[in-house]
Design brief:
alpha/beta; two-stranded antiparallel ribbon
Length: 256
Amino acid sequence: MDWTDLNWLKPILMPPWSLALLALAAALAGGRKGRVACCLALAGFLALATLPVANGLQRLVEARTPAPAASRPQAVAVLSADYRAVAPEYGEATIGPATLARLRHGVHLHRRTGLPLLVTGGGTPERFRPGLGEAMRIAAERDFGVPVRWVEPASRNTMENASLSARILLPEGISTVLLVTHAEHMPRSMRAFAAAGIASVPAPVASVALADPEPWSLGALLPRTRALDRSASAIHELAGMLWYEVVLAWRGKASR
């Protein structure tokens, strides 16, 4: 297994598991310090489940998006996200809602610019048929009526999205893309594509920073699962950005 692929650690290190484990350890430790730590873990959990905290974290992540490439885009690259391994209504596996949101935006950009479309995604279980990249192509062509020029079917993570897409695009003379992914995922994605030799013009989906701010209300302070999911996703991206810098620095040293 590639040492940079630590997907199995994500559920443990990210909320809510990390906070639950902290609370459990504090409870087992007992004493005043243990009670204080347990209360802090619970307070952190509740704070992350509020919309003001979740939206603030997402804006923090989005603010780290690099400046767009100065060169003109030559293609639209759509990164995969989730999938549905069982979709009885289609009789086959298909893309999930997050991937669909990205693909829809990619299709919109293709129609607006005329640029060719690349979809990238893989790493799905054996029972997932067709593969994720192929499922994206099927959805684009069958459901949106838009041709996909290139399918990258093997990537397991964002760094591989970039490196394997670069192997397809660079020989075609394409060095700049309109990069389509969720806004919070954009900083890490652009960094990965830059490391692979592809410049990016960001084309984000579901940006919190660019959207009209939600009106403040007392109800926004009530914990809810939607906000906790946003917070966990933002923390995941912050950790991912740090991890990618470590990996890229290590690879740079190893190549010398």
